[in-house]
Amino acid sequence: MVQDEKAAHADGADEQMLGSNGVEDKLAERRDEVKFIKGDHQNGDAKIDIGTVNGGKPAFTGMSKEELMKYANDPFWVRLRWIFFVCFWAIWVGMLVGAILIIIGAPKCAAPQPLPWYKRGPHAKFASVETCRPEDVQVAKKLVSAGAIYELPAALTYDVKKPEVEEKIKHLVALYQGSDTRVILDLTPNYAAKNSQLVQDAIANPEKRSAFVWVSGGKALPNNWLKVGGNRSAWEKVGDNYVLSQFEDGYYDLKMNSTIIRNEFGAVLKHLVALGVRGFRLKNTKFFALFDSLEDEQISSSPKDFSLGPNEYGFYSHRQTTFLSGLGDVLYDYLSIVKNASDEAFFSVAEDVMEPQVYQLSGDSGAYGIDLPMYGNFVKVLSKSKPDTSLQKELDNTLAQSGTDSWLQWNLADVYVDTPQDPSALAMFLSLLPGVPVVAVDAVAYQNVTEETYRQITSLRKTASYMHGNLNLYQADPLVAFSRQRIKSGNPGYFVIFNPTELPQASNFTIPDNLPDKMTVSYFSEQYNNNMDNSGKVAHAGRVNLKDLKVAPHSSIILTYVPVKAE
To answer: Does 500 have pLDDT greater than 60?
Structure first.
């Protein structure tokens, strides 16, 4: 009892020590940590350690609402808040305007450039400059031709500045004035006539003889070289000298890499460009004399005729006089002259290059010294009644040998006169390959193909899928097929099939995943439906299943499709 009263008295004293006002609030505000520590266990003593949570540091409770409200209307803080508000929206609007300006001002993706006119084609091949006539313009119009090719007689090559020759060329250019067809000339620059100024200058001045293959003071023939295709020596006597004459009698070969001829022939090209000529094709390029060595020709290891003897041209290999090293560089030199005279003019060859690597630049593997090479026998093989090789392999080999990026001339004059193939089928198939068709106006490819077919061909050749599309070949012997497809979306692809046989053939191609099974008929050769029964006939804009399609004999068909997107 006494102890209880003391304890009660002590409790009351403690309450007085705490005070009577806000006891609960004080306790709520304080969060003390109390620790009881044992003292001497014999005496029963204990220590009490009172401290705050969080390592003895008062907990941060932030400002109360009442404290914050004291600053709500303070002029300094009001002004600062407005500054931050305006800056935020100004920066946001600035970023928006900047993004819009970047979108508007960013350079657009350039549209694909159209092909230069000489790659668009086709080109109409006529005869001589001396036989041109006004009716030729209508012939070129039927072909929808970009160029009209005429041959300048070899004897006039270095006489183009003479008034009578100049007048002929001006007349020719005037015929095509106002049309979309440009004039192209076939030139023979590698020899000059005995009575030409070049030869007369060389006879009078020994320093001018470097323009020719000239051997002074020789009593015996310099070597065993023969006239091209003949059985007589290629050397002609001029006074006490021998001069190389591989072609006609009285015409002497020129060294096409000599400074004199470069200046002379360069002046010819520039003058013709000034007269309005916009394209040149050179003849006899494989015979261009670029040599200083006069070694004898070696016997051919594979002659065409084993009955030939030492006095026959075909008996020798002709490695000393044909396809000489550096030819591509020499041609490129003349190409540069033409391009400097007119950036729209072109410079090429009129005959099969046969050995493409010789026509390429020595310092740039794969690049030609000319614009449009002509190579291969694919046109001949395609027009045979019964091709003896796989057309797909022949085409693949032609493109591979000439260079994957080359733009060839497809010489339709190589089509056999007695070909069983529909000429319009040949024209369609060849015209959609990389290259430009050259159509001789006296050949079957012109005489037996309508103007409408050539207009269809021209419209397809102007599309992005043709001009810039990838070429892929497909095999299904005896058929041959290829596709032209531009990688960029929005451009339809073209699938072109040719049947060289006399029977309908199933199009059993192995189709890759990016080609659909069903395609739309775009165009087909003129005799296509005449060569098929009713079940196999097709119609423009009709849909066909490639797996079920049978291609008409001696015919071509052009299908369009939308490439399948890869998943």
So the answer is: yes
Q: Which band of pLDDT confidence, cut at 50, 70 and 90, is reported for residue 59?
A: low
The rounded distance, in Å, linking the Cα atoms of 320 and 335 is: 25
Q: Where are the beta strands (DSSP E) in 73-144?
A: 123-128
> By the 8 A CB rule, do 360 and 335 touch?
no
Report which of 129, 116, 125 is spatially closest to residue 174, judged by C-alpha positions: 129
Which residues fall within 8 angstroms of residue 167, CB to CB, at 6 or more apart? none
Write out the H or E segment, with its range, that includes residue 337: helix 327-341
pLDDT band at 209 (very low <50, low <70, confident <90, very high): very high
Look at the alpha carbons of 399, 400, 402, 406 in this order and tell me if their dihedral is positive or negative. positive
HEC-encoded secondary structure of 402-413: HCCCCCEEEEHH
The single-letter DSSP state of residue 449 is S
Question: Which contiguous run of DSSP H or E holds residue 468?
Answer: helix 464-468
**What is residue 255's three-state secondary structure?**
strand
Residue 58: predicted pLDDT: 58
Determine the Cα–Cα distance for residues 54 and 57; give it in Å rounded to an integer.
6
- Count Cβ atoms within 10 A of the Cβ of residue 144 and give its class: 0-12 exposed, 13-18 middle, 19 or more buried: buried
Distance between CA atoms of residues 373 and 490, nearest Å: 32
**pLDDT score, position 27:** 45
- Measured from the Cβ of residue 497, the count of other Cβ atoms closer than 10 Å reads 25
**Per-residue pLDDT at 257 exceeds 70:** yes
What is the 3-state secondary structure of 269-307?
Answer: HHHHHHHCCCEEEECCHHHCECCCCCCCCCECCCCCCCC
Can you give the pLDDT at residue 511? 80
Answer for the pair 213, 251: CB distance below 8 angstroms, yes or no: no
User: Using CB atoms within 10 A of its CB, is residue 141 exposed (0-12), middle (13-18) or buried (19+)?
Assistant: middle
Domains within the chain, CATH numbers bracketed: 191-253+294-318 (3.90.400.10)
Q: Give CA–CA dist 507/477, Å, rounded.
A: 9
HEC-encoded secondary structure of 128-172: EHHHCCCHHHHHHHHHCCCEEEEECCHHHHHHCCCHHHHHHHHHH
Helix (H) / strand (E) containing 462: none
561 sits in which H/E element: strand 555-561
- Which amino acid, residue 492? P
CA distance 151 to 161: 17
pLDDT for the residue 80: 87
How many C-beta atoms surround the C-beta of residue 201 within 10 A? Answer: 14
- Phi/psi of residue 214, nearest 5 degrees: -120, 120
Q: Could you tell me the pLDDT band of residue 6, with boundaries at 50, 70 and 90?
A: very low
pLDDT > 90: percent of the chain: 67
- What pLDDT score does 5 carry? 46
- pLDDT at position 44 is 57
